[in-house]
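Batch manifest, entry 17 of 40.
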Amino acid sequence: MLLKGRELRTTQLHLLCYNLFAFHRRTMVPPNENGASPKLEGKHAAIIVCWLLGNGCLFPWNSMLTIEDYYVYLFPRYHSTRVLSLVYQPFALVTIALLAYNEANINTRRRNLSGYILFSVSSLAVLVLDLATSGRGGLGTYIGICVTAAAFGISDAHVQGGMVGDLSFMQPELVQSFLAGLAASGALTSTLRIFTKAVFENSKNGLRKGAILFYAISAFYELQCVLLYAFVFPKLPIVKYYRAKAAAEGSKTVSADLAAGGIQKTTEIVG
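Output type: structure tokens
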């Protein structure tokens, strides 16, 4: 009887050791050829890219709000300071509600890229609209500005929710960096607006020239965000690791992200 009890305890101990070893192997991340874990490799670069992408998420809309002084001068009868916000919010709310309802079946990469591309095109449209009308106001120009404000709302709904969801299964520092970029966008656009106004302070049509320069910078920055998300972000080792892990755990929204990072979709659980 005593012998059987010892054998039982020995068997239980062996099973416990085996389970611990199996758990360790399942959760252990093998180092790459440089000795760094792919779970951590490229983390600092990813943090910087996430900050830039977060900044780009609100940069165009904050730019439009920051040059309200120009729109007040251009459209004195149309109350642009109030109307643009009223146009922006419903489009953002309805779009994000639709995306949230269908989130399980939406291609995350296509969603985020669509948002950044629309941001870039809309920012460029504001610039082209002003140049095409030679800085003249009027109802047609005002409607065009309102359409771009609505486009900013749709873009924000695509990017902000999509990026937060994309980063939520990665390390917390990446989400924090993206949100920090969102928060810094207002301060950055305000500083940039002060600079552009100061550059043309004493020139003829200085207010308009400052606004044109401001939106040219905004459109260029959004183009950089498109390139960052399309070609740089998916190839970072830490991003590839977490996306492969999400796919292995059953996520249906990261297949395009894996292809962009050069990863074959697999059913094997990573990490």
